[in-house]
Specification:
Organism: Alkalimonas delamerensis
Bound molecules: zinc ion
Protein name: DNA-directed DNA polymerase
Number of strands: 5
Number of helices: 15
EC number: 2.7.7.7
Number of domains: 2
Order of helices and strands: HEHHEHEHEHEHHHHHHHHH
Distance between the termini: 41 Å
CATH class of the largest domain: Alpha Beta
Shape: globular
CATH topology of the largest domain: Rossmann fold
Structural class: alpha/beta
CATH architecture of the largest domain: 3-Layer(aba) Sandwich
Strand content: 5-15%
Keywords: DNA-directed DNA polymerase, Nucleotidyltransferase, Transferase
Pfam families: DNA_pol3_delta2
Radius of gyration: 21 Å
């Protein structure tokens, strides 16, 4: 388990041992925190037939099926595109209504549920209203503010954060991460896995240039054209922008909740379009997004 998620894992494990784990969990928190890893650990706990125990036994048939990656009582959406459609939720619902093949729990994981279309969200609501016996649904979300309140209220929400930054710093050193200067401290502390991904792909310096450029643009010290040109060359631009929006504009979520929410919606739309647009259209879409960003920051 990632060390900063260990306390949450222990609490979830303890609920499981007391048979008090709710049927729907929503693990929310920044992208790059390790929500998926935590979800997978809870899945292993729930599916182990030797339990409920503090940890999965690793030896029972169920644990072995899980390790081999094809447990019949585990479902996860295989579509990683920028939209979760209603078909995925129908599959989930069918999965839940079949009988458990190993005689234990049936567990499903749906990642980054803010990607759900309206139809998908409504279909999911039905599943949440009638939870099947022995069925557990684990949702994760980077942006729980975008979810329907009726969905959030039917789940037990776990807002994950890094409680002790020293734990992350120690982990970073043990992994062999390069020494980071002050500029990257907030990134490391709030999204350690994202920082790690950028370090591994040698992109930390490029990320720094992009973030500095965005800051200068917001302060009127860099032109739109310059900014678009530089950002267009940035690899994984949606991730860089997403981090900037959260880190730099998070205070707007209190000061201008409506404006912030609308911007997040536009941003999600841009992330979906970004993969398909080419050439000039790509630049136009980025320009439109940057105009909105500046408007929100004004
Ligand atoms: Zn087991």
């Amino acid at each position: 388990m990632l060390p900063w998620l260990e306390p949450s894992y222990q609490q979830l494990s303890s609920l499981h041992q007391r048979l008090q784990l709710p049927h729907a969990l929503l693990l929310s928190g920044r992208r790059g925190l390790g929500k998926q890893q935590l979800a997978e650990a809870v899945v292993r706990l729930l599916l182990c037939q030797a339990g409920p125990a503090e940890a999965p036994c690793g030896r029972c048939k169920s644990c072995q099926l899980q390790q081999a990656g094809h447990h019949p009582d585990f479902w996860q959406d295989t579509d990683a595109s920028e939209r979760i459609g209603v078909d995925s939720i129908r599959q989930l619902s069918r999965f839940f209504h079949e009988h458990a093949q190993q005689g234990g729990a049936r567990v499903a994981v749906l990642e980054r549920v803010e990607r759900m279309s309206e139809a998908a969200a409504n279909a999911l609501l039905k599943t949440l209203e009638e939870p099947p016996a022995g069925g557990y649904l684990i949702l994760t979300s980077d942006q729980p503010a975008l979810l329907l309140p009726t969905i959030v209220s039917r789940c037990q929400q776990w807002s994950l954060t890094v409680a002790d930054t020293k734990v992350v710093e120690l982990w970073w050193q043990q992994q062999g991460g390069q020494t980071l200067d002050k500029f990257f401290e907030p990134l490391l502390h709030s999204a350690p896995l994202e920082a790690w991904q950028w370090q591994q792909s040698g992109q930390l310096e490029q990320v720094r240039q992009s973030l500095l450029q965005l800051e200068q643009y917001l302060q009127g010290q860099a032109s739109m054209q310059q900014t678009v040109q530089l950002l267009a060359k940035t690899e994984q631009l949606p991730l860089v922008l997403s981090w900037f929006v959260r880190e730099r504009l998070a205070q707007k979520s209190n000061a201008q909740p409506q404006g912030y929410w609308q911007f997040l919606q536009r941003f999600q739309q841009w992330c979906r379009d970004e993969q398909q647009l080419l050439g000039q259209n790509k630049q136009l879409a980025l320009t439109a997004l940057l105009i909105e960003l500046k408007r929100l920051n004004a």
